[in-house]
Amino acid sequence: MKKTLTILLLLVSLLGLTGCGSTSMMDEYIFGSRVLTHGASTIEVALPFDLAEGNPKDAVMKGMTPEKVFVNMDKHLVMQIVAQDKATISAEAFTKEQLDSFKLNPQLSGVEGSIKDVTSNGISMQQLVVRYKAQQVPLTLVQYNFVDQGVLWSITYRTTQTDSLGLEVMKYIGGKIQRVQ
């Protein structure tokens, strides 16, 4: 009985020291960055995980013809980076088209969005934040759009509105973009 009580006390102490199984953002991810080049533009983007090159035909984006696509996802976050050389649309017009496409999509409900000008490391960008439901799942999307050296870049993060870790990661890495000379 005394031995069982001692083991139970040690187990409770160990759980207390380890945070009772809670996972922090820094426990879950090893943050880094990746240098991406398309056309005459080279940028560096903060990442929570590595990205794979995707098929540009799979990235349907109104107002843009994707030529280069990088994607990845895990249980908390979906990330996509899309680039088009010789941009035929401004970042401002592209961002507005993105918001309009969410609002006009009959498969989405409760769409609320906002656009604002932001700057990161000297790059002027349009930040689009959209909250919506898809198949009754509440989602948050944050997108950064800008033109650099004639290349339109669109960097998108998406998570569920109830995933506090996904939201924390989006806030931590969101907009951490810089030009590489």
Explain what this protein looks like in three dimensions.
The protein has 181 residues and is of the alpha+beta class. The chain has 4 helices and 10 strands, in the order H-H-E-E-E-E-E-H-E-E-E-E-H-E. The strands form 2 sheets. A 7-stranded antiparallel β-sheet has the order 3-4-5-9-8-7-6, with helices on both faces. A 3-stranded antiparallel β-sheet has the order 1-2-10, with no helix packed on it. It is globular and about 45 Å long. The termini are far apart.
In short:
With 181 residues, this protein is α+β, with helices and mostly antiparallel strands.
Index terms:
181 residues; alpha+beta; 7-stranded antiparallel beta sheet; 3-stranded antiparallel beta sheet; 4 helices; 10 strands; 24% helix; 44% strand
Structural class: alpha+beta
Reading the helices and strands in chain order gives HHEEEEEHEEEEHE
Q: How would you characterize the largest beta sheet?
A: 7 strands, antiparallel
Number of helices: 4
Average pLDDT, rounded to a whole number, is 88
Overall 3D shape: globular
- Structure summary, number of beta strands: 10
Strand content: 35-45%
* Sequence stretches where pLDDT stays below 50 over 5 or more residues: 8-19
Relative helix content: 10-25%
* CA-atom Rg in angstroms: 20 Å
For the biggest β-sheet, the strand order reads 3-4-5-9-8-7-6
Distance between the termini: 69 Å
